[in-house]
């Protein structure tokens, strides 16, 4: 378990979300945090001891695709229910809980997907704060199940039912156990957040202390404690996360901090200048710029595999930080490196046991084994919207806090194929046009991120100026998202897409085709590599 998680677990009431393969485990964790309670996610393969290591006040069992009554389905160890921790089951988690405690779960023959009317038969603690008109009140819930709890375990009160779920909610407040068949975490469920909060606050007794002001105070205190009077190098990219991480470290230790910005030749047009100008102006921080494009491009020459690109970039970042340290360190040296790593970077890099490695984020899975620095990652447990809230709390300007994310490996993972200076120049021009037109349309805020991708190894035939061309396609990938864990393709207006397409094919001679990516995440990721 990472040190940050340990610290948070000690300072705040923690909720552990056990992921049974749900589409919504991330969403559950976020909703818990929206109730101002700290939460972490663990895979269902975690043992009860591993769950309890987080010192949770409550555990939430997520939904999942399996059927609890089928042999080999993931189960929950009944020891959890005697561990003096509150437990809330959702969908599969509700069924697993019912079965483990002696209730009866079976297929119903009546599947319920999507909007479902749930009849509350008893307010209990879970529903007591809801404005439900009388007994047998109906409210709209979101369901996704084919199995159902037919009999609640002994001692539990049944609170609701639906046509396809004889027991749609139950609780045993004295044992601090409860569960629901529907999904309280999705916005389509009426009163969903209130029901979750009733569990968190009224049944589990979690304090609502996970707020931006507390996050800042805690991180500042723990950075001070850890760093003492040592010096810290902070990797600054111009993006939101590292800007907020640097501002936190600066608040904690002031001029013991030096920031380093790596110009690795994989940046977008104007980016290096912007960091030097804006960030220093906003914070007055001490900034070193390392201009190392030749070094990065040299190591990337001929490399086409995305994971290999990330590993090379992760390694060269660290080599650059080491070289910078040698350049600027006095006789005390620099032991600490601060980075703006976020919780989704950690989850996607498959660091948690059992989680799949989707891609090795250069700053997590891409780090070299012989790392000389101790890492300070004050945002390692946060989602992006929480980072933005912390940035506002620290007084960073709104333009900085709202900036679209840009991945550390930069344009290297937006060129499908090997990376070289010429290809980078093509992509940089196309990207600048797309960004410019998006900003000019006033729709910047509607889009989470807008990758522009060059399919460098693909060519297609075109006709331009009455002549045949054989050029490359550019892919536009504008997406909307809440936290980059899931995303949808942005429905940008056709006239904006047309302007971008026309300008790119007119102004970038090597490109003769512009295509729009209309894939959500999942199944696609946001970046192409
Ligand atoms: N060009 C760079 N120079 C120095 N450090 C970098 C650079 N690019 C990335 N990093 C480091 O890698 C971390 C992860 O990069 P990432 O792009 O995920 O975050 P960010 O740039 O801080 O924020 P955003 O997600 O908004 O772009 C950064 O927080 C920073 O510490
Ligand atoms: O700093 C980073 N280093 C990386 O190696 C990396 N890979 C993806 N990303 C960013 O993470 C978010 C999710 O991206 P994917 O849907 O492509 O996994 C998106 O915001 C991506 O831009 C990265 N950021
Ligand atoms: N979404 C879920 O958790 C589904 C649980 C189980 N597979 C069912 O069909 O009932
Ligand atoms: Mg970035």
Descriptive account of the structure:
- The chain is of the alpha/beta class.
- It has helices at residues 3-11, 25-34, 48-53, 92-100, 192-203, 212-227, 240-253, 271-283, 293-300, 306-328, 343-348, 384-393, 398-401, 421-441, 494-507, and strands at residues 14-19, 38-43, 56-61, 86-90, 104-120, 137-151, 157-162, 165-172, 177-180, 232-235, 257-263, 287-291, 336-338, 374-376, 415-416, 452-455, 460-464, 467-476, 479-481, 487-489, 511-516.
- The chain folds into three domains: 3-203, Class I glutamine amidotransferase (GATase) domain (Rossmann fold); 212-401, Rossmann fold; 420-516, GMP Synthetase, Chain A, domain 3 (2-Layer Sandwich), CATH 3.30.300.10.
- Strand 11 (257-263), helix 8 and strand 12 (287-291) form a beta-alpha-beta unit.
- The chain starts with a helix and ends in a 13-residue tail after the last strand.
- The structure holds adenosine-5'-triphosphate (ATP), xanthosine-5'-monophosphate, glutamine and magnesium ion.
- Residues 310, 348, 359, 361-363, 405, 407-409, 449, 484, 521, 525-527 line the site of xanthosine-5'-monophosphate.
Gap from first CA to last CA: 28 Å
The CATH topology of the largest domain turns out to be: Rossmann fold
Structural class: alpha/beta
**Strands, total number:** 21
In oligomeric terms, what are we looking at?
Answer: single chain
CATH homologous superfamily grouping of the largest domain: Class I glutamine amidotransferase (GATase) domain
> What are the distinct ligands in this entry?
adenosine-5'-triphosphate, xanthosine-5'-monophosphate, glutamine, magnesium ion
User: How much strand?
Assistant: 15-25%
**Total of DSSP H or I helical runs spanning 4+ residues:** 15
Average pLDDT across residues? 91
Strand order of the largest sheet: 2-1-3-4-9-8-7-5-6
Q: What composes the largest sheet?
A: 9 strands, mixed
């Amino acid at each position: 378990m990472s040190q940050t998680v340990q610290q948070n677990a000690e300072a705040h009431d923690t909720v552990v979300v056990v992921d049974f393969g749900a589409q919504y485990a991330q969403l559950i964790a976020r909703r818990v945090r929206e109730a101002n309670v700290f939460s972490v996610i663990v895979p269902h393969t975690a043992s009860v001891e591993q769950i309890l290591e987080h010192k949770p006040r409550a555990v939430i069992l997520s939904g999942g695709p399996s059927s609890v009554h089928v042999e080999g389905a993931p189960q929950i160890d009944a020891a959890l229910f005697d561990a003096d921790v509150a437990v809330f089951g959702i969908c599969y988690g509700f069924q697993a809980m019912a079965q483990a405690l002696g209730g009866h779960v079976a297929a119903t023959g009546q599947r319920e997907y999507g909007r479902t009317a749930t009849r509350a038969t008893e307010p209990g603690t879970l529903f007591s704060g809801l404005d439900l008109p009388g007994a047998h009140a109906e409210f709209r819930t979101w369901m996704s199940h084919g199995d159902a709890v037919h009999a609640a375990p002994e001692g539990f009160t049944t609170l609701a039912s639906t046509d396809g779920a004889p027991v749609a909610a139950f609780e045993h407040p004295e044992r601090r156990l409860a569960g629901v068949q529907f999904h309280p975490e999705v916005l389509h469920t009426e009163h969903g957040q209130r029901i979750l909060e009733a569990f968190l606050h009224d049944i589990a007794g979690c304090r609502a202390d996970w707020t931006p002001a507390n996050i800042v105070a805690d991180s500042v205190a723990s950075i001070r404690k850890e760093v003492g009077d040592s010096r810290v190098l902070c990797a600054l990219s111009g993006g939101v996360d590292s800007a907020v991480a640097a501002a936190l470290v600066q608040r904690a230790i002031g001029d013991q901090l030096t920031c380093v910005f790596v110009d690795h030749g994989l940046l977008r047009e104007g980016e290096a200048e912007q960091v030097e100008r804006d960030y220093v102006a906003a914070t007055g921080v001490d900034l070193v710029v390392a201009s190392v494009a030749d070094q990065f491009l040299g190591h990337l020459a001929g490399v086409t595999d995305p994971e290999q690109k990330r590993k090379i970039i992760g390694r060269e970042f660290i080599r650059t930080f080491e070289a910078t340290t040698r350049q600027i360190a006095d006789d005390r040296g620099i032991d600490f490196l601060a980075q703006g790593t976020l919780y989704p970077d950690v989850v996607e890099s498959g660091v948690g046991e059992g989680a799949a490695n989707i891609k090795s984020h250069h700053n997590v899975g891409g780090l070299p084994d012989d790392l000389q620095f101790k890492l300070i990652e004050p945002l390692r447990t946060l989602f992006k919207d929480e980072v933005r809230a912390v940035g506002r709390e620290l007084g960073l300007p709104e333009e900085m806090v709202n900036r679209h994310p840009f991945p550390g490996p930069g344009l290297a993972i937006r060129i499908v194929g090997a990376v070289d200076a010429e290809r980078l120049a093509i992509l940089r021009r196309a990207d600048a046009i797309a960004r410019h037109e998006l900003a000019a349309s006033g729709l910047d805020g509607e889009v989470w991120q807008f990758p522009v991708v060059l399919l460098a190894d693909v060519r297609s035939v075109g006709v331009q100026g009455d002549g045949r061309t054989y050029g490359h396609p550019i892919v536009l990938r504008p997406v909307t998202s809440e936290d980059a864990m899931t995303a949808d393709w942005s429905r940008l207006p056709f006239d904006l897409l047309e302007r971008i397409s026309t300008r790119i094919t007119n102004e970038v001679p090597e490109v003769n085709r512009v295509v729009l990516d209309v894939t959500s995440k999942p199944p696609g990721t946001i970046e192409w590599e």
